[in-house]
Amino acid sequence: MSADAPAVTLPASGALSAQDRAGRVRTLAAHHAPLVPALATVLLMCAPVEHGDASSPGGITPADAASAVLVVCCAVRLLRARGRPLNGTAALVLGAPAVGFAVATVTSGDPAASLPGFVRYLQIFVLVPTALVLTLRTVRDFRVLAGAVVVLALVQGAIGVEQYLTGTGASYMGHNIRAVGTFGPLDVMGMSTVVAYGLIAALAMGLAPDADAPHWLRPAALGSAAALLLPLALSFSRGAWIATAVAVGVVLLLAGLRLAVGTMAALAAVAVVLIGGAGIGSQMMSERFASITAVSDAPDRSVTDRYTLWAAATGMWRDNPVTGVGLKGFPAHRDSHASLGLSSGSDTAGAGLAFQREPLLSPHNMYLLVLSEQGLIGITALVGSWAALLVCALRRLPAARRRGRAADCGLLATGLLVWQTVDFLYADIGGPSTVLCAVLFGLVARWALTEDRAAGADPR
User: How many whole angstroms separate alpha carbon 460 and alpha carbon 442?
Assistant: First the structure.
């Protein structure tokens, strides 16, 4: 990755003239201005979400608008520079999913209905990640954006804890206690996703700070990771719990076995104090944990519906194995492939929303959603791209650890990608929080794919 912009030096006298100050401001503004749309994309997710945004396919949130500005600004810079922005590997890994999206749209029974899905998939998995790869020029930029994710997680987590304590969250087992942050009950996974991203990012930055990092960084980062355990628990999201446990385990092992054991013990102690010792939702949480293993003996209604939706997605793929039923085609084909055991929808209430039933419009499994709507072409291109990102990220990490430089970026990128690929076993894209998934893939791609750029090997 490229070298940092040169520092602005002071005059020999130690005093800055008005002209020097103006020049310094212009230099700093020119360097950091491209990062503003990226930060806005993340931080605007602190804003409350209108209830209709999560359910409306065409709903555009402020964060979506900021991501569009990010892409446009990046395109303008590329046109001005007229250079080769990406190496061959990066172009292939980032661009391959677009082929699957295009094929699924063109071969769909209703291409016009599939077009919004094509635009959304292109935004999340191609355009925004590519724009971030080209925007994050230094390791400092990378860390600033990762820090913004942690700030977002802390804000949403604090709101979620307040919702639990005051009984103003989403409905769970007849009580309005489920922490959902500003995303509301229609995007019940939104807060847990944001908090999990922030937890992993904070943990990575705390485990492997550079030698010249501020002395306060490690305790602040690890303290933030520990604090985020509470809102994650209060989200009552089983999929997020499982994905976080796997990702944290991977990050700790990559950071070093001795460090992993000590940190894991500390995190376990914090979890016991916050959840068990303080009695915070302990009974409901125990029941929720127990339900993870009760998926075959006595599954709850949500698990039964999920199995039925998975079977429907598999059936769609069998009927259209190569190209699928088309983007946004799952709802239209669901009833013809689902058994009578599928309920009419999921109950949502609380967090400022009256009771209503939301239709089940996806299989809640990203891999099966892609397989059913895009077929073998789409899933090979998309999952192959993620696998390439993981391999490239892991390949760069040992050298970074030996040098003691930017290892936190490698741990962060690897941990986030592991979290997302595990979570996609229980969830798919949708809702206002989806744009943060694009930021995740941008951070991962920035670490994994830019080693051979002409400006330099490290994001520094």
Answer: 17
Instruction: Please check whether residue 24 lies inside any domain of the structure.
Output: no
pLDDT tens column, 54-112: 433 346 889 999 999 999 999 998 888 776 788 889 999 999 999 999 999 999 989 99
Q: Model confidence over 430-447: pLDDT tens digits?
A: 888 899 999 999 999 999
- Global confidence as pTM: 0.87
CA R_g for the chain: 22
Count of domains for the chain: 1
What span, in angstroms and rounded, lies between the C-alpha atoms of 382 and 68? Answer: 22
Please, where are the H alpha helices in 16-127?
18-32, 36-43, 62-81, 88-106, 111-122
* 5 part of a folded domain: no
Residue with tokens 């130690």: 14
Q: Which tens digits make up the pLDDT trace of 320-338?
A: 999 999 999 999 998 888 7
Alpha-carbon distance 350 to 329, whole Å?
Answer: 30
Domain that holds residue 173: 33-45+60-300+349-448
Q: Is residue 457 part of a domain?
A: no
Query: What gap in Å lies between CA 60 and CA 66, rounded to an integer?
Result: 10
* Domain-embedded: residue 239: yes
In angstroms, the CA 344 to CA 358 distance is 8
Which residue from 385, 381, 377, 383 is spatially nearest to 321, judged by alpha carbons? Answer: 377
Cα gap 31→398, rounded to integer Å:
30
- CA 351 distance to own-chain centroid: 23
